[in-house]
Amino acid sequence: MSYVIGVDCGTSGTKTVLFDETGAVIASATIEYPMYQPKNGYAEQEPSDWANAMKDTIKAVMAKSGVDKHDVRGIGISGQMHGLVMLDRDNNVLRRSIIWCDQRTAAEVEQMNTLVGRDRLVEITANPALTGWTAAKILWVKNNEPEIFSRVAHILLPKDYLRFILTGEYATEVSDASGMQLLDVPNRKWSDELLSAFEIDRSWLGKVYESCEVTGTLTKAAADELGLCADTVVVGGAGDNAAAAVGTGVVEDGKAFTTIGTSGVVFAHTSGISIDKRGRVHTCCAAVPGAWHVMGVTQGAGLSLKWFRDNFCTSEKETAKLMGVDEYSLMDKAAEKVPVGANRLLYLPYLMGERTPHLDPDARGVFFGLSAIHTRRDMLRAVMEGVTYSLRDCVEVFREMNVSVNDMMACGGGGSSPLWRSMLADLYNCDVKTAASKEGPALGAAILASVGAGIYTSVQEACGAIVRTDKVQSPNAGNVPEYEKYYRLYREIYPALRNSFSRLAQL
User: Fold this and answer.
1) Domain for residue 507, yes or no?
2) DSSP letter at 338?
């Protein structure tokens, strides 16, 4: 039996899982670490924390499993995207990593648009300039920390710093590099035009690989420390969402997944590149060679339900504690008693502004149609439906881009809710499934490693052998037309309030 390791370097911690070649979990370990916020809107982490967590979790899974190190064929790494790691000529980290959720770079986004032009940026990188992405962070260091910038010799993403620790190689792969805004996404290579415009030395950037390609093998020092063999291959890996797509089998046209976590993500695979010139969704290279993915984001998905729970569901929280059950399951049961449309009550889930499809930081949450007949239960149902309408907005943008979706997986905390899955199935009008494995990005990274190690010949073949479906929720034929009526009205509310949201933000 052959084995592979999937490492998932997240924001709250790093999780490492040892899988056998069928995708069965042999051992798992997680180590958490802090995030630093020296100023409002700043978010930073220590790359050494990621490295130590990776090394310690790899050692832990090997110790737990008792697997012979000679049977471990490969390592794949998934990671939080967009983080900036800067090294000097001696490979010392020059400053804490500025990570994905940092928002300090508004001036640099304007600088990027001035230097290149918004439309040209979208043509090259498939996305408009964004504060959270890496290029703006590089420019911020250049503008604000020139002494540090003068010593830069290498620029890496979080997971690619871990690759360097393992292999000594400066490398990246297409899915994660797509989120730097330095990659020519249609052509899957660094953009000389952008590097020249931003005055970034191409030698600072690693070689770009496909996600399942071998980028190197463990150094002898790393192998000895981790209890592995020096010929163990390390593949490109993938950014977290691209790895989650592989881990859920979203590797062919028509397939997509919806994640309902704090935010909501709808992610679809496409074999042909499609770019939304308005920037409502992100287009990036997929972890499947020669393919791309599109991704829509709604800011306040699970956050909306958590907000409602924390402020209005004290009784459910207390009852759940006494019963020893999940409070969200009691909330599900309450919402199930309310008909489709929440008795003519609609909710806009814009608690944190919105990205897809409105790109409006001033948008705010709204209950529309509230009357004296409505109860807390109606409001709860409306919140869940409103989040689902917002996720449907993402799918509608995909359809405008000729990206089809007819096979949907549900992930994240919200994906475990039968009621939410039924809403998704009714509003997408297609089956909504859950994966048997809950390992997501770690499994996706391991699948990529299994391809690079030669256990499987392609990502699609590996997913066909490994990814299994757990539950399937089909649309309710009676609910589909009812939801369509409410969804059409939902879509009219934001345009009617757009100017009012802007005025409110200025008060």
Assistant:
1) no
2) S
- CB-based contact 368:383 (threshold 8 Å): no
> What's the mean per-residue pLDDT of the chain?
96
Q: Report the 10 Å Cβ neighbour count for 144.
A: 13
Residue 316 exposure: Cα atoms within 13 Å on the Cβ side: 20
In whole angstroms, what is the distance from residue 124 CA to residue 105 CA?
Answer: 20
Domain tally for the chain? 2
- Collapsing DSSP to helix, strand or coil, 421 comes out as helix
Instruction: Give the pLDDT confidence score for residue 412 in this predicted structure.
Output: 82
Is residue 84 located within the same domain as residue 225? yes
* pTM of the predicted structure, to 2 decimals: 0.92
Report DSSP state, residue 353.
B
pLDDT in tens, 172-222: 999 999 999 999 999 999 999 999 999 999 999 999 999 999 999 999 999
d(CA 61, CA 5): 9
Quote the distance between the C-alpha of residue 155 and its chain's center: 21
Asked if 233 and 288 sit in the same domain, the reply is no
What is the β-pairing status of strands 183-184 and 189-190? antiparallel
CB 349 within 8 A of CB 304: yes
- Per-residue pLDDT for 413 more than 90? no
Mark whether 224 and 280 lie in a shared domain: no
The CATH number of the domain holding residue 487 is 3.30.420.40
pLDDT in tens, 436-487: 998 989 999 999 999 999 999 999 999 999 999 999 999 999 999 999 999 9
Instruction: Identify the domain containing residue 376 by its residue range.
Output: 249-435+473-501
CA–CA separation, 397 and 384 (whole Å): 21
Look at residue 415 and tell me whether its pLDDT is greater than 90.
Answer: no
CB atoms within 10 A of CB 41: 12
Cα–Cα distance for residue pair 318/40, rounded to 1 Å: 34
Q: Which residues are catalytic?
A: 240
**Which pLDDT score is estimated for 118?**
96
At position 257, the amino acid (one-letter code) is: F
- 120 and 147 belong to one structural domain: yes
Determine the Cα–Cα distance for residues 172 and 209; give it in Å rounded to an integer: 6
Among 212, 242, 272, the domain-final residue is 242
pLDDT at 234 over 90: yes
- Rounded CA-CA distance 411/391 in Å is 13
Instruction: Report yes or no on 454 lying in a domain.
Output: no
Domain limit, last residue, from 216, 242, 268: 242
Sign of CA dihedral 14, 17, 21, 22: negative
- 138 within 8 A of 205, measured Cβ to Cβ: no
